[in-house]
């Protein structure tokens, strides 16, 4: 086994372990425990920890769940210093996904991943993944295309830079099946979905005023196709995302700076809770 393979395996293991810590809020609970024991200074710290750790964990879980349901901030909540954001930005074309994703990537030093560009470059590779992608798109079967796309995306998310820095992803997932796949079957799932909500009329106005209008992926026919696909899947995707703690909703109709401010505030102050709402 080569040195690079060993390093990648260790990075993948570390990332999976961090997902486990995030899911169960272990770092935050231990930090809170250390703060309280530092204030109380019990004569028998082992007995104090055994007596109080359940209370501290229950209090923190309760506050996190309440904040997630009510979209409220926790007074003493602060993300761990080396927290790895793994973010999906979802919304219709023209909602500002790319603009906000690039801004987030710069702000939090994340790897920016555009699924469309990734798929395009994969097509020109000479490996088994490219062959599977070619075959799926030639057959034009939606289920096979989603499976091939998921494989390409997961391979990219398991590369060293994404594992060590975290990532922000756009243009995938696009339907309920793909969202279910990335949340429940990926080794390193996202810990936040940012849903940029923008009316179709506003989004179309932005798209038709872009300076590169007329390019292969920025013409009226392509825009109409993208809007139609989003509209066909919007209700089902919205119903799915509304059931997950990872989802935050952002009104993306204001200017870029206003949307960015709202987005950064929620990312840094709302607790990260993973899984389905009960």
Automatic annotation (TrEMBL):
<dbReference type="GO" id="GO:0005524">
    <property type="term" value="F:ATP binding"/>
</dbReference>
<keyword id="KW-0808">Transferase</keyword>
<dbReference type="InterPro" id="IPR000850">
    <property type="entry name" value="Adenylat/UMP-CMP_kin"/>
</dbReference>
<dbReference type="InterPro" id="IPR027417">
    <property type="entry name" value="P-loop_NTPase"/>
</dbReference>
<protein>
    <submittedName>
        <fullName>Adenylate kinase 8</fullName>
    </submittedName>
</protein>
<keyword id="KW-0418">Kinase</keyword>
<dbReference type="Pfam" id="PF00406">
    <property type="entry name" value="ADK"/>
</dbReference>
<dbReference type="GO" id="GO:0019205">
    <property type="term" value="F:nucleobase-containing compound kinase activity"/>
</dbReference>
<dbReference type="GO" id="GO:0006139">
    <property type="term" value="P:nucleobase-containing compound metabolic process"/>
</dbReference>
<keyword id="KW-0547">Nucleotide-binding</keyword>
């Amino acid at each position: 086994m080569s040195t690079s393979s060993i390093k990648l395996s260790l990075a993948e293991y570390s990332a999976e372990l961090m997902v486990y810590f995030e899911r169960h809020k272990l770092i935050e609970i231990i930090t809170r425990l250390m703060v309280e024991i530092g204030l109380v200074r019990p004569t028998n710290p082992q007995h104090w920890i055994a007596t109080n750790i359940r209370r501290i964990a229950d209090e923190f879980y309760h506050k996190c769940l309440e904040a997630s349901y009510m979209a409220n901030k926790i007074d003493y909540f602060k993300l761990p210093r080396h927290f790895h954001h793994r973010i999906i930005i979802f919304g219709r074309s023209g909602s500002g996904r790319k603009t906000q994703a690039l801004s987030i990537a710069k702000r939090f030093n994340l790897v920016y991943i555009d699924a469309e560009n990734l798929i395009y470059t994969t097509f020109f590779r000479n490996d088994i993944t490219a062959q599977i992608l070619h075959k799926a798109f030639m057959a034009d079967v939606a289920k096979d295309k989603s499976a091939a796309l998921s494989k390409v995306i997961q391979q990219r998310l398991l590369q060293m830079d994404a594992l060590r820095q975290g990532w922000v992803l756009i243009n995938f997932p696009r339907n309920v099946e793909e969202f279910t796949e990335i949340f429940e079957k990926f080794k390193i799932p996202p810990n936040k979905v940012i849903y940029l909500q923008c009316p179709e009329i506003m989004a179309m106005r932005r798209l038709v005023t872009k300076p590169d209008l007329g390019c292969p992926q920025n013409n009226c026919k392509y825009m109409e196709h993208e809007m139609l696909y989003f509209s066909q899947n919007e209700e089902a995707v919205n119903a799915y995302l509304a059931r997950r703690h990872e989802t935050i909703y952002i009104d993306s109709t204001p200017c870029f700076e206003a949307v960015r401010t709202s987005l950064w505030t929620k990312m840094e102050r709302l607790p990260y809770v993973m899984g389905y709402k009960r």
